[in-house]
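The freezer alarm interrupted the setup, so I double-checked each line after restarting. Inputs confirmed:
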Amino acid sequence: MNPDRITIHFTTGAGLSDLQQLTQQALDAGAQSLIVLAADGNGCDPMVFDPWLQSLPVTVAGGVFTQLIHDQRHHEQGYLVLGWPEAIQVRHVAGLSDSGVDFTEQVGAALSDAMDSTSLMVWVDGLSSRIAAFLDGLYDVMGADIAYFGGGAGSLSFVKKPCLFSNQGMLQDHAQLVCMRQPVSLGVDHGWQPFSGPFVVTQSQGNVVQSLDFQPAFQVYRSKVEADSGQSFRDDNFFDIAKGYPFGMEKADHTLVVRDPISTDGSALICVGEVPVNSVVYLLKGQADQLIAAAAQGASRVQADAGPVFMVDCISRVLFLQSRFDEELQAVQTAIGGRPVVGALTLGEVANGGDYCLEFYNKTMVLAGLPQA
Amino acid sequence: MPTLSASKLALIALQYELALVVGQDLRLPVMLRRFFTPALKLLGCRSAHVWRGEGGMTPTHVFAYPLREAAGWSDQPGWTGALASVGPERRFAVQTAPDGLLLHVFALPGFGRALITRERSPLEDEVLHALEPIMQRLAMACQACDQYENAESLRHKAEAANVAKGHFLANMSHEIRTPIHGVIGLTELALEDSHEAPVREHLTVALDSARHLLQIVNDILDFSKIEAGRVELSPEPLSIAELVDGVASAMRPTAQLKGLTLEVVLPDQAPVVMVDRLRLRQVLYNLTGNAIKFTPAGRVTLGLSLPQPEGEVGHPSQVHVRFSVQDTGIGIPPEKLEHVFDAFSQADESTSRTYGGTGLGLTISRQLVSLMGGQMDVRSVPGQGSEFWFELALPRVAAPAASASDALADAWCPLPERSLHLLVVDDVPTNRLLVSKLLERAGHRVDMACDGAEALAKVKEQAFDGVLMDMQMPVMDGLEATRAIREWEASTGRMPIYIVALTANAMAADEQRCLDAGMDTYLSKPIQRPAFDEVLSRMQSRSATQASA
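Predicted 3D structure, all chains:
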């Protein structure tokens, strides 16, 4: 085995012993650090995992995601371990939902000795309420000349619980920054199209949209979505319908940043990521072919190299595409070529593409082409 | 109505969103960050910079997002030239830097310039035009931040000056009064000892001058304290009729010296109220003193009445009290009447030459009345006289029962005087000399100490009948020394020694601190003979009582 390569190890086993075997394989292959991705279906219990994480002889990062991606399939159970050929620096920022936290200050302190990083792998607790504010602070500190990619860990049950792996144990409401000195090539796209709007977000608090055009947000949303979908919202089926109807915040170049409403709170809508007050949003909907084509388009932007491709894809694309999601994975693989594509299905995605400000995306596919060492 | 095209709608939406994120804070870096963070995302741009300075001024870089780009901007190729491309005639421009980065420069009228960078393609013309009014608003917001910072800086300076003023007042009050008290006290002693007419005349003039100087100093310090908001009232139960009567009794000799009659008009029943005794007395002394000063012949009348406020049912727990001082003096011309309460102003400049005075007495009195919740006013007829009055709404209280200590004092029978062994504690030699001379003349033996630590040591070594203790001293001040003496007495079972505070400031708060520390009473400097004699009398009684116990 080449000790300078990133090694990929995967199992569909769900127990800690399966993970332990996997990590041992990586260490035997010469890994100096580990990126560990676990599927939420494994039921990772901090009481069980913390002692093991704290006993690891190398740096560990990663977390629990809704599903994993490996070998052109998505998996509801299993572990994916990437053996890193060098000792990576991992930093954490706490309080991702605290309103009083100055993230520029926190990130500056956390990364004070890692300012020469070329790329950052960014994992966040996907159910925290100030993820976009954290990313603004991260961008403020690290600037525009590095590549950022990553996404939101957590469970599709939307129950908040520890979801990030660290040498201190499992973490909740944190952000994790994996500092890399290798350049990364990014491809980002989503394929959702506007069909109604614009609407002004007249009242919002973090990731909770309270009113649109001075009317209760859910009332406006449901009237448009029910009319288009022919379905009716009940107490128990919000996301079943809403997964096909996200919001989009339009930029000056007519691209859209998608915001996923995942539940309601009375007449308000709870989204993955902040929706600033006074922002103008559109209602989007998707066609399966357009989504798949967009994924392939995004993959075509990843520069050719020999290293593996890390895929961060939104779980709600799976829920929307259902059986056709395999086509998205195949389209991406085709566009990428022979490089292995591995990754996770997340609650929100992080990327900047190198020429924009850092964004927290929803319902978007992010590909990071890792260089061969 | 015709529908807007999608692109036009998007442009309006963009302008709307950007306009609403301008000016969200009055701190410049925070305001700019709260604007550019969402603005860059909306515009699909990568960084923003702001400079202060227009025209020929060398611009000063004041902001960058991301912050990481703040250093080194001047090394960026093409940036300096781009900044110079906008001005009054051209509000925005787009240039391509040698490294391919697109530089969008905007004038911020009245403030400086902003630069937004983008890759790949420049912002569309319509977007640039839509941004122009936004940037004008941003410029105004920047100016508002600068003005806020200036205002805050001035406020901090004013607060610092006020604090310094307070320290000055506290220090100068003690430093100035202490030597004056020494001069007054020793001159009084010298007057008692001298019997030659010329010497007595000279000493009398010197004493009058020193007292006058003290009054001027007190007025100025009082005025400064009130201006600085450092006067706190200390209300206590008070029979206002007794107070007014007491002021009249004290001022009557001065009036009689001029051949004036000093009358008092009191209601049949006057309540006991909560009021600052010292300050109310100060006001009445000032008004009565002025009335006597400006009345060549006739009478001065101190009045106390209880008017009911018009159209208002009196609050059962409050009483409205009217104080007035009326004279048959020279009066005040109508054109001068509105300025009579102004600081350093007297009705006539010749008045100050003829009658003397700092011109602060009425100002201080009016301010004190205002602090007490009232308002002072005047009416006057030149050649016939003036009336000054003020009304206060004061809480009514039950007449205080005689306290236990008062009862004990009443129970002390006046016993034959004997020589007391007393300790005088003061760090100022003049003051030690003055007080010890007064005590020796009264027939007592005196030891001295120059600070609280020495006093504590002496009290432990010798038996004293009483201690007269200055407050402000180095090493150990009067309060600390008193507390230490009381602790020693409690731990050794000794009888409490009579401790008298010698206070220069005469503030009610200072006097309460003395009592809280364990002192028995206080004497205000300059020491007035009646109060001094009373204190010695109480010492005699305590000493005799303890001796017979």
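Quick read of the result. Chain A touches chain B through 26 residues (CB under 8 Å).
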